[in-house]
Amino acid sequence: MKKHIELLGILHIVYHSISLIIALVFLGINGGDIVVSWKDVAVREIAMVIIVYQFLTFGLLSLVFVSSILGIIGGIALLKTRPWGRILVLIIGFLWLIRIPFGAALGIYTIWALMNNKTIRLFEQTAQERDSSGVS
Fold first, then answer.
1. Which of 62, 12, 66, 69 is nearest to 34 (CA)?
2. Tens of pLDDT along 43-97?
3. How many angstroms separate the CA atoms of 127 and 83, rounded?
4. Rounded distance, CA 119 to CA 122, Å?
5. pTM above the 0.85 mark?
6. Cα angle vertex 54, ends 50, 59, to 5°?
């Protein structure tokens, strides 16, 4: 299971890095549009619809941004076999099941690998070794 954990850590770092870059690009595009909308659109109702849409988009992209950062941190923690990293990545794995097809595939693999009894024992053993040696 050690190989699965290492692969999972790498996959989370890569997948969430790509998601982070995409979110940053779209956040930059969307942020500029909010300013333009207030100035250029004369009709109040159309302006309001556009602004609400842009704020919703901004909110969703911000969520992707935050979850991507957490996914990268979790992936690094998995590579270091930190028990809190296992929990973090499991939560992210469950949440990203709705991102079909790649997020769902990664989520299923995450749940399968990290809910395995051998994996749980490995993380517990690593935590005990760290506690006994005094390494944080």
1. 62
2. 666 777 777 887 888 888 888 889 999 999 999 999 998 989 999 999 998 988 8
3. 7
4. 5
5. no
6. 150
Task: Retrieve residue 22's tokens.
Answer: 């995409």
CA dist 121 to 43, 116, 131, Å? 62, 9, 15
Under 8 Å between Cβ of 8 and 110: yes
Tokens of 93: 């794995």
Q: How many C-beta neighbours within 10 Å does residue 117 have?
A: 8
DSSP 84: H
**CA-to-CA separations, 61 to 28, 56, 70, 88, 106, in angstroms, rounded:** 10, 9, 14, 20, 20
Q: What integer pLDDT is reported at residue 43 of this predicted model?
A: 62
Domain boundaries, the chain: 2-124
Cα(7)–Cα(22) distance, integer angstroms:
23
The answer to whether the peptide bond before residue 83 is cis (omega within 30 degrees of 0) is no
